[in-house]
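hey so u asked for the seq, here:
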Amino acid sequence: MGSASKKFWKVAGYDGMQQIFEKTLPESSLSEDQMIELLQRLAARHLTPNEIVRASLRPNSKEYAPLLEVHRQARTAPSDRFTIMVGENPHYAASIWTEGEQSA
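ran it, structure tokens below
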């Protein structure tokens, strides 16, 4: 019965260490670039309009603020998973899981 394992995105938001949001989506529903856009939209909800403008400027701009920068945590061991993070505090993270994995 060699059926392929289903994969999904696990999206979570944190304010400090407290989880404030969680959603799972089929992996096929969003590309990595689309997931980054989603995380940036979620993180932007916690910013002022001026902070959103400053975070949207070119990084070499004098007024630029890295409030919506994308951080990727690469796998360094087989037990690690690739994670995309956006925001400071609160911040949002997304990673790909396989059905049946323990999401601790």
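The chain has a mean pLDDT of 91. The longest strand covers residues 7-15.
lmk if thats what u needed
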